[in-house]
């Protein structure tokens, strides 16, 4: 099969006249490469239109130390520079997967091709628009997967603590309840009147109610130790066994020596040990149940945050968006990174923040990228400020201005204009995708909004402006 017949095998050239294909053949060179030949390294100039006559070529991220396959081209594929294309270089490596033959046309011939070969140019321009569409879809998908990976790791980390707390509390509660029959025997042998029982239950529930409104954990270690010593000594003085084990739970729920004096006055010395053990037994049970409840609420909060973040229960069309909800959910899902670096977070959201119209999932992608980048840029103990305020510029124009400010090293001036370029990253190999800010800028255009950056050492500020 001659070259002209081979070119007609290309689906893109099915309706291109022979004369135009022959025009390309006359100005091109046919070259063959063995398997695993690197045709282009990342950022090398690309100067040819490449017609893949036979073989197989892949674009991968091998230059970064891992052969991550991005795109594969088979027989009759079109690569390289196209008419009216602004391509100067590739961001990744171009390599043959098996013996490959190419027809190469230098870019210097493309202006003449556009003048003399209308149908061929039309076909190649269509190929370029398809490439742009596929590339955009690929980068968006890659960024979504990268974000999903970050959020999955964060969610697993955040869920680990409350789940462990539930398991631990359930095991302890199970062990604790095994001692209930013995405690019941003691209670049954108490000689208490109905009024005395009411006094004990009243003080018990009073302390439970106080626990829900007053945080006794705010006591310093020294204060708590001093109170426990006082209660231990009091119990010891009144002949209560296991006084050291009883003092901790009693102090934890706010019992003082004065409270114990009041109880003693109501029930008498002969009932004190039994009542004290009954109080502590029930306080421990309440504490374990409370811990399980708090951990379960934390799990529910995280699940609700991830559900709202991913918009699992909503349509895919444009809808009303409450930015405050998206910002808070994103902060919740990135909380593990914030805590691991001991970052001081300030979240300021106006109460009168207007509702905007847009795509919630896309905007959550914006907050994830910007906040995640800010966290990575900051040292341990850094400061992160997130604010969202209404911004009315005229009677007819209302906006929401969201700022994300960090005190990291800043973005050097010589690369500041490149940060929104596809695949550009300042992070070391293995960290970041280089996709985030390119995607963010695309989302802003989709919402008729804007994103600006100001940066100097110790202060980097991203400003996101969205129309209401």
From TrEMBL:
Its EC number is 2.7.13.3. InterPro entries: cNMP-bd_dom, cNMP-bd_dom_sf, HATPase_C_sf, HATPase_dom, His_kinase_dom, HisK_dim/P_dom, HisK_dim/P_sf, RmlC-like_jellyroll. GO terms for molecular function: phosphorelay sensor kinase activity. It is an enzyme of class 2 (transferase). SMART domains: cNMP, HATPase_c. The keyword Ubl conjugation does not apply. Pfam families: cNMP_binding, HATPase_c. Residues 12-131 form the Cyclic nucleotide-binding domain. PANTHER family: HISTIDINE KINASE (PTHR43065:SF48), SENSOR HISTIDINE KINASE (PTHR43065). This is histidine kinase.
């Amino acid at each position: 099969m001659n070259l002209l017949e081979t070119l007609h095998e290309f689906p893109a050239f099915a309706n291109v006249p022979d004369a135009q294909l022959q025009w390309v053949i006359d100005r091109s060179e046919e070259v063959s490469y063995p398997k695993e030949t690197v045709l282009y390294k990342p950022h090398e100039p690309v100067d040819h239109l490449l017609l893949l006559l036979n073989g197989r070529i892949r674009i991968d991220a091998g230059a970064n130390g891992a052969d991550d396959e991005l795109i594969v081209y088979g027989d009759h594929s079109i690569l390289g520079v196209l008419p009216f294309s602004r391509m100067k270089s590739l961001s990744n490596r171009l390599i043959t997967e098996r013996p490959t033959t190419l027809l190469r046309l230098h870019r210097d011939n493309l202006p003449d091709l556009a003048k003399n070969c209308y149908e061929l140019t039309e076909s190649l321009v269509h190929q370029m628009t398809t490439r742009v569409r596929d590339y955009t879809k690929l980068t968006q998908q890659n960024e979504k997967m990268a974000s999903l990976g970050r959020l999955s790791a964060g969610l697993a980390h955040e869920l680990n603590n409350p789940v462990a707390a539930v398991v631990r509390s359930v095991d302890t509660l199970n062990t604790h309840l095994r001692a209930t029959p013995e405690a019941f025997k003691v209670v049954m042998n108490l000689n208490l009147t109905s009024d005395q029982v009411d006094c004990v239950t009243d003080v018990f529930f009073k302390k439970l109610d106080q626990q829900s409104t007053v945080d006794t954990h705010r006591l310093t270690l020294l204060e708590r130790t001093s109170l426990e010593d006082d209660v231990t000594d009091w119990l010891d003085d009144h002949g209560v066994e296991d006084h050291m084990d009883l003092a901790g739970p009693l102090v934890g729920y706010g019992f003082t020596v004065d409270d114990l004096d009041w109880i003693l006055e109501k029930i008498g010395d002969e009932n004190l040990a039994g009542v004290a053990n009954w109080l502590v037994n029930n306080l421990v049970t309440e504490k374990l149940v409370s811990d399980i409840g708090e951990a379960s609420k934390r799990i529910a909060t995280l699940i609700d945050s991830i559900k709202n973040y991913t918009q699992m229960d909503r349509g895919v069309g444009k809808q009303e968006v409450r930015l405050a909800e998206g910002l808070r959910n994103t902060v919740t899902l990135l909380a593990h990174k914030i805590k691991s670096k001991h970052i001081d977070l300030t979240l300021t959201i106006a109460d009168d923040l207007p509702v905007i119209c847009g795509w919630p999932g896309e905007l959550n992608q914006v907050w994830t990228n910007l906040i995640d980048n800010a966290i990575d840029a900051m040292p341990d103990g850094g400061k992160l400020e997130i604010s969202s305020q209404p911004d009315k510029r005229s009677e007819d124009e209302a906006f929401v201005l969201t700022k994300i400010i960090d005190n990291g090293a800043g973005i050097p001036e010589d690369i500041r204009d490149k940060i929104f370029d596809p695949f550009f990253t300042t992070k070391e190999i293995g960290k970041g995708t280089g996709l985030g800010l390119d995607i963010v800028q695309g989302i802003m255009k989709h919402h008729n909004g804007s994103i600006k950056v100001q940066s100097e050492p110790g202060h980097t500020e991203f400003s996101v402006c969205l129309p209401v």
